[in-house]
Amino acid sequence: MPHQAPASTVGGERANPTPTVWGNIPPRNPNFTGREALLDELHQRLLLEKATAVLPHALHGMGGVGKSLLAVEYLYRRMTEYDVIWWIPAERTAQISMSLVELAPRLGLQPGSDASSTVAAVLESLRIGVPYANWLLVFDNAESPEAVRPFFPVGGPGNVLVTSRNPQWASIARPLEVDVFMREESKQLLQVRGPGISDEDADRLAEALGDLPLAIEQAAAWHAETGMPVDEYLRLLEEKRVDLLRGTAPLGARHPVIAAWNISLDQLEAKSPAAYQLLQVCSFCAPEPISRGLFARMQRGSIAPELDAALEDPIRLGQVIREIGRYSLARFNHRTNSLQMHRLVQTALQFRMTEEDRTVMRRGAHLLLAASDPNDPKDVMRWERYGALYPHVVVSEAVLSDEHWVRQLVINEIIYLQRWGDYDSCLELARTAHETWTRRLGEEHLQTLAAARWLGFLLFNMGRYKEAAELNASTLEAYRRSVGPDHQDTLDALGNVAIDHRVRGAFTEALELSESVHERYSRLIGPEDPDTLRAAHNLGVSLRLVGDFHRALTLDQETWHNRTQTFGLDHVDSLRTWLGVILDIRGLGDYRTALRYHQEITEQATTLLGGGNPFTMSCRRHLAVGLRKAGLNEQAAATAEQAAADLVRRYGDQNPESMAATLELTANLRHRGDLAEALRLGVGICRRYEDTYGKYHPHALSAAMSLAITHRLLGNAADAQYINSEALEAFTAALGEHHPSTLGCRVNLAGDHCAAGDLTRALDLDTETLPRCREVLGADHPVTLAGAANLAMDLRAVGRVEEAQALHTDTCDRLRRRLGESHPVVAQVADGEQRVDCDIDPMPL
C-alpha cells in the first residue's frame, strides 16, 4: 500500500529532498552495517499498516542489539518520503511533552512550554494531517505503553515508530524483533573499522562477543584505536569475562559487551584519567543527551583532581571528550553539543567502581547538576534549562545528596514543573523529596519544609484540598517551632494556610491572615521586596473574594506597577497580578475595559508561556467570562468550550480550573438557548462543586445559582426558587448581606418569585435590593442596573406605571452608557418583557 501523498508534493514527486520538519534526530552512525532485511521489513510494515496507524510499531530486544540505531538508520534512508520526522525521547512523560511542545511552532502552531493543550494542539494537527499529512514520530525508549500511548495522534495519516525494551508493546502492535547480528554482519563491521583483521580473526572475535552489535562496535573501535593483535584482545576479553563471572555481573547475559568495554575502560583509565572520571560521573546521569554546558567549571566542591583540571580548561575538556569518542564509549552530538551514553555503558562503569567510587562520582554528578542550576525557576526563560536537567536530577537520585545546593536544585525543579504545568511529574518529585528529607534531615529542616510548602501549594492547584490543608497546617507549626513566628518562611507557610481558609469558604478569616502576612512582610523587609509583593498579590485575591473590588484594584495596581518595575512586563508574576487587576475591573462592572485587557493578557500569556500553560488556560477561561459579560455571546461560547475541553483533557474534570471552565460553559449554553444541555451539564458541575467544596461554600452556591437560572428558563420556577432561597440564606451567613454575590442572588430570587406568580414578593425583594446595590456596587454597575430593570417590570406589573416608566428610561440610558448600544442586555431591557439574571463567576482562590 503506497504512502499517502504528503502535503508538499507536486505531481507525485516530493518538492524537497529532505523533510520540511526534521527534528532531534540523533546523528547517523557512519559505521552502520548490515540489517538490510530488518530495514526492508520495517519499511514494508510502515507501508502496510499506515491505514491503521493507531497501532505503533514496537522494536524491542535485549540491550545492545541496536534498536535505536536501526531506527536512526531507517530515518536517514527514508527521509525523502516524509514531510515531518520527529524524534521523541520517551522514557518520561515530561520529556515527551517537551519534545511535542518544541514541535508545535514547526507545525505553524503557537509555541508553548508545557505538557498541556499545546501538546493536544500538536496531536490534533497531526491527527487531521494539517499542515502535514505525511509524518513519522519516533518514540525512543518508550518503557510504559500506558504512559506513552496518550501521546499518539490517534487515527492520523502518519506513522508512529516505537523503540522499547518492554515486551508489553507486543500486545499493542506486532513487534519487529531485533536480535544480534548475523555472523557476516559482525565480520563486516569488524573489518570495515579494522582493515587489518582477517576473515578468520573476525569470525573468532564475533564468536567471542556473541555477535552482540554493541560489543562488536566496541571491539572494532578498540582495534582501530590500538591495533592490538586479535589473540591478545581475546586473551584480555577472557580475563574480563572471568572477572565478571567471579563478581555479580550486571544485567545477566551482557558479559561480552561489558567485558569488551572493560578492556577499553582499562586503557582509557590509564591513558586519560580525566576522561575516565568524566565517564564515571556521566554514568549516574540519565541515558539522555547531557549538554556540554553541564561540564562548565563548578562553583562549589571538587570531584577528582584530574577531572577538576579538565573542567576548568575548555581546551582540555574538548580533548577529554574526543578521547571518549575514539573508544566508542559515548557519542558526542556536535549539532546539539551534547554527550550521550548507552545505559549498558553506564552499568558497566558503575559495576567497576567500589562503593567509595560510586559515592564520589554520584556526588560529582550532583555537583555538576547544581552548578548548572540557573536558580530562578519562576523565570520562563530558564525553563528550557530546567527541562534539560530534570531527567538527570531524577536518575542521579539528587534527592539523596548531602549537599545543600543540590537539594536546592531539586526544590527549583519542583517549582519549575509546577509553573510549567506538569503536575504529575511535580507531585512525584515533590513527594519523593519531602519523604526522603523528612527521613534523612528531619521534618523541621528548612529544605524539608520548603519541599512541604511547595507540595502543599501543588496539592491545592490539583484540587486535593484535604491533603493540602493537613500538610500546610503541620508545615506552619514546624516553621513556628524551628525558626519562629516572624521568619519569612513562616509567613509563606501562613500564606498557604490562608489559601486553605479560602478553600473552606472562610473568606473573612483568609483576609485577616493575608493582611497580617502582608503587613509583617512590609515591616520586616520593605514594601517593594519581591516577597512582600507576593504577599500583596495574595491579599488582593482575598479582597476580591470578600467583594471589596475597590480596595483590591488600588492594591493590585500598585503591586502590578512594582512587579513590572522589578521583573518586567513579561514575567509570569507580573502577569498574575495583571490578571488580578483585570478581575477587579470586571468586578467593578467595567466590562468593556476588562474585555480589552482579557484579550491582551491571554495573547501575551500564550506568547510567553504557550497555549497549554495552566496560567494561559486560566486566562482563556476568564476571557470567556469577559466576552460573555461584554455581550459577545458567540465568541464567549466558542472560547468557553475550548477552555473547558483543554483543561479537562489536561487535568481531568475534578481540577478546580476545569470545574470553573465547565461552570462558565453552562452559562454560555444557556445564553445560546441550549437549555437542555445547560441543565445536564449544570446538574453535574453543581454536584462536583458541592463534593469538592461543600454545599454551602460560596463557589458551590454560585454553581447552584447558575443551575437555578436554567431551571426557571425551562419553566421550573419552584425548583429555581427553592435553590435560590437556600443559596441566599447561605450567602448571607457566609459573606454578609452586602456582598456582591448575596445581592446577585437576591436579584435572581426576585425573578423566581415573579415567574411563580408572586408579584408582591418579587416587588418587595427588588425594592429592598436596589438601594443596597447602589450603595455597595454603585448606581451604574450592571448588577445594579439589572436589579433596576427588573424592579421597573415589577412596578409596571402592579400598576405603578409612571414610576416604572421613569425607572425604565433611566436604566436604559445608564445601560447604554455602561455597556454600549450593541450589548444584548441593552436591547433586552429596552424591550421590557424579559427579566435580567445575574451570573456569579467564582473568583480564583
Summarize the structure in short.
By secondary structure, the chain is mainly alpha-helical. The chain is 65% helix and 4% strand.
Task: Summarize the helices and strands and which ones pair or pack.
Layout: E1 9-10, E2 13-14, E3 21-23, H1 36-48, E4 57-60, H2 67-78, E5 84-89, H3 93-103, H4 117-128, E6 135-140, H5 145-148, E7 159-163, E8 176-177, H6 183-193, H7 199-208, H8 213-226, H9 230-246, H10 255-271, H11 273-282, E9 290-291, H12 305-311, H13 314-326, E10 331-333, E11 338-340, H14 343-352, H15 355-371, H16 383-395, H17 404-420, H18 423-440, H19 446-461, H20 465-483, H21 488-504, H22 507-525, H23 530-545, H24 549-567, H25 572-587, H26 591-609, H27 614-629, H28 633-651, H29 656-672, H30 675-693, H31 698-713, H32 717-735, H33 740-755, H34 759-776, H35 782-797, H36 801-819, H37 824-831
Helix pairs in contact: 3-4, 6-7, 6-8, 7-9, 8-10, 9-10, 10-11, 10-14, 11-12, 11-13, 11-15, 15-17, 16-17, 17-18, 17-19, 18-19, 19-20, 19-21, 20-21, 21-22, 21-23, 22-23, 23-24, 23-25, 24-25, 25-26, 25-27, 26-27, 27-28, 27-29, 28-29, 29-30, 29-31, 30-31, 31-32, 31-33, 32-33, 33-34, 33-35, 34-35, ...
GO molecular function, one term: ADP binding
Pfam family, one: NB-ARC
Domain NB-ARC: 36-191
